[in-house]
Each structure stands twice: as structure tokens, then as C-alpha cells.
Amino acid sequence: MKQTLLLIACFLMPHIFGTVPKSETINVVIFDFGNCIATTDRVPILSFLQKNLNLSSEEETLNVLVQLRRSREKNISDEKFWAGYEKDNNLALPKDWNEQLERIYLSCILVNQEMIDIVLGLKRNGYKVAMLSNTTPFQANLIRKLGTYSYFDPVALSYEIGAEKPDPKAYFAVVKMLHLLPNQCIFIDDKIENVEAARILGFDAILFESPIQLKNEFQKQGILYQ
After folding, report:
1. Which pLDDT score is estimated for 24?
2. Residue 139, Cβ neighbours under 10 Å: how many?
3. Is 36 in contact with 110 (CB distance < 8 Å)?
4. Mean of the per-residue pLDDT values for the chain?
5. What is the mean pLDDT of residues 46-75?
6. Could you give the C-alpha distances from 32 to 9, 80, 162, 183, 199, in angstroms and in order?
7. Buried/exposed 89-124: b ≥16 CB within 10 Å, e otherwise
8. In percent, how much of the chain has pLDDT > 90?
9. Which of 10, 37, 69, 75 is deepest in the core (most CB within 10 A)?
10. Do 116 and 37 meet the contact criterion of CB atoms below 8 Å apart?
11. Coil, helix or strand for 53?
12. Cβ contact 25:184 at 8 Å
């Protein structure tokens, strides 16, 4: 109860006083996933679908991906979607079609090893490293299979916590998991709106551009990452 009241007070402070005090000690580094820890290359999946579905253009292929995404949003399984697509388009897809697709999707996620090295360096120096990511169950399942989430604890995913950045509820959820206040954490994200929201709530925050830029920012703040 006391911790919850402290968190609420911290979130209200910017609106009441116009500023939030910085903590002298940063205990946790919270990372975004997409475009920070990893990037996505859509070329393999677009090429695979266009070839195997006999589509004539990238526009048609993108349209199929939009249909698939909307199907997932309605909690329709990929298996059911492709069974319907196969029937509607008079196609005979391979029996291992979904397995092939998963392998292609996995190959599209390009984990930045330099960022993983930074994460490991932070942990060696005693920092707790967490994640706050806007994602879907499908995307999260792929990342879990790659094992990338294992470097972070806790991992706060939007569909599990019921809020997406820059909604304050998303930031509230991760600090609640950490049992800390925002001013004891530094938040890293590639989207300015997410960084600004974090700062308003009392987090120290860095707009991510590249591993080199992040290292320079850490050095300025005395955060040890090697």
C-alpha cells in the first residue's frame, strides 16, 4: 500500500510542481525492444509470401499481411486464417506451411549483438535490466523462441499489462514490477513520444539512436556498461 501511494505521488508531482526530483542513484535500466535491441527486416517474409502465394506485386503481398494482422487482432489462429485463405484462393499450401512461415518470421528479427553486450555489461556492473515493450502475442512468441527476453527481468509487454506506451499505465506497470520509483530508473526508447512521457513521469530517459550514442549518454551519466 505504501509503495503504491509513493508511485501515485510520483506520477502526480509533475502536474503539481512542474518537476520531478532526480535520484542520485540509478538502479535499473529499462529498454524498449523494437529498433533498440533488435530491428525487423520485412524483405524475407514479403519475398516468401509473394513467391509462394503467386502474388504479382508487393502491394498485394502487403495486403495479405494486413489481413493476417487483423485476423490475429480478432484472436483468430494463423492456422485458421491460412486454411480460409487457401480455400478462398483455390490454393494448395504445403502441410508444413505454418512452420515454414515461423522460420521466415524468425529470420526477420535481427538482434543487435552490440546492444546485448551493453545489457550484459550493465548486469555485470550491478544494474537490473528490464524491458517495457509495445508488442503483440504473435511477436512476443517469436522473441521468446529466440531467447532474447531472457536477458531482461522483468519483461513488461503491452498486451499482458493492458497498456501501451506512452500511456502512463504502461510505465506504472513496470515500476510496480520493480518495486521502485521512476526516478530510480533510466528508460531507453527510440520514439520521442515515449521518452517524453517517461520524463514527465519522473524517469531519466534517453532517446535511442545507436549503440555508440547510447554508450556516450551512459558515460555522461556515469553509468557503467563494460
Report:
1. 55
2. 19
3. no
4. 91
5. 95
6. 25, 31, 16, 18, 15
7. eeeebeeebeeebbebbeebbebeeebeebbebbbe
8. 88
9. 37
10. yes
11. coil
12. yes
**Hey, what's the cell of 1?**
500500500
DSSP H/E element including 206? strand 204-207
SS3 216: helix
Query: For the stretch 208-222, what's the b/e string if a residue is b when 16 or more beta carbons lie within 10 angstroms of its beta carbon?
Result: beeeeebbebbeeee
pLDDT digits (tens, 9 = 90+) for 121-177: 999 999 999 999 999 999 999 999 999 999 999 999 999 999 999 999 999 999 999
Mean pLDDT, residues 196-210 taken together: 97
% pLDDT > 70, the chain? 89
One-letter amino acid for residue 186 of the chain: I
Measured CA to CA, the distance from residue 222 to residue 136 in angstroms comes to: 35
Cell reading at 213: 550514442
Strand 155-157's sheet: what is its strand order? Answer: 155-157, 128-133, 28-31, 185-189, 204-207
CA distance 198 to 179: 17
Other beta carbons less than 10 A from residue 160's beta carbon: 12
Give the whole-angstrom CA distance, residue 128 versus residue 123: 6
